[in-house]
Amino acid sequence: MDTAEASPIGRLGYLTVATRGEEGPGEVVVPIRGGSETFTAYSALPLPKDQQVYVVEDLGGREVTVVAWGERRDSLLVL
After folding, report:
1. Cα(74)–Cα(34) distance, integer angstroms
2. Are 27 and 33 in contact (CB under 8 A)?
3. Helices (H), 1-79
4. Residue of 19, 46, 60, 78 with fewest CB within 10 Å of its CB?
5. Which CATH number does 3-72 carry?
6. What tens-digit pLDDT sequence spans the chain (79 residues)?
7. How far is the C-alpha of 78 from the C-alpha of 20, rounded, in Å?
8. What InterPro entries does this protein's entry cite (predicted)?
9. What is the pLDDT of residue 3?
């Protein structure tokens, strides 16, 4: 398996549990390795459930850092 294929960095996902910024993590589903996997998601700012996010850092142990990307998943615009 290619290392890039195994890394969540650079992938888009969506939050299934909102993040609370410095107050605590949420949860993100990311399409990876031919399926979808769940990671604990940290962000600098609070992000709502269903927000589309971009994974910017792999913290190890199924934890990632994310930033907002596009619109909420229930919007007409999904990047």
Report:
1. 24
2. no
3. 3-6
4. 60
5. 2.40.50.140
6. 555 568 999 999 999 999 999 999 999 999 999 999 999 999 999 999 999 999 999 999 999 999 999 755 554 444 4
7. 22
8. NA-bd_OB-fold
9. 52
How far is C-alpha 9 from the chain's CA centre? 9
Length of the chain: 79
Render the burial of 21-42: b for 16+ CB within 10 Å, e for the rest.
eeeebbebbbebeeeeeebbbb
Quote the CA–CA distance of 19 and 78 in Å, as a whole number. Answer: 19
Instruction: Please give the pLDDT value at position 76.
Output: 47
Pair of tokens at residue 42? 């940290």
Evaluate whether 13 touches 31 at the Cβ level (below 8 Å): yes
Q: Which SS3 state, helix, strand or coil, does residue 22 take?
A: helix
CB–CB of 44/21 below 8 Å? yes
